[in-house]
Design goal:
By secondary structure, the chain is α+β, with helices and mostly antiparallel strands. The chain is built from one helix and twelve strands, in the order H-E-E-E-E-E-E-E-E-E-E-E-E.
Amino acid sequence: MLKDDERNRLANREKAVAAALAALEHQKREAQTAFDHWRAGWDGKVRVRDPVSSFAFDEADGTDLHNSVTGQKNGSFDSRYTKRVKGFSGNGLQVDGDSPVKLTEAGPYQRHLPFSLSVRVNLPKTFQRAFVLGRSRGEQDAGSRGYELLMDKGRLSFALVHFAPGDEIRIRSLQPVPVNRWLQITMTYDGSSEAGGLRLY
């Protein structure tokens, strides 16, 4: 049984939650009105923003990866463990699964900001679990925080993570990923903070 002060604290918190939900609904209505206004004047053309970063692995200089976006930092890799090999077009990088390829200036992104990522890969086998692409404040096995593309039991898994494994939004591909062939994988997020806003192509 709750004490009087506990009931009061609970009631106050319930009122705060109700007020926050009401404010959220108000913001949704305002956003919908603004969107409808924008949509009415839209010319139907989709304009793609310039990329934040773009790396072509065939343009590596030693252990540096050239970032073709002017003013952005280059990426890097450890040539002791990551090898230059023939890629889909030009050269690619063959990674060992432990030594990362570091693509700087690719994020970070907050959950209210839409973004997309695209990478071309050739998987030599079906992986039960393997890290493909992402950005994190922590290790993958210690509560990662950021975004990630994984191979999970042969399928793609794309997630935005606040604290793994419980506080995240995640989607998985329905079909297993083909192996020993080049694949263009693209991930998109619409800034909605909902799993429905994630897409894999």
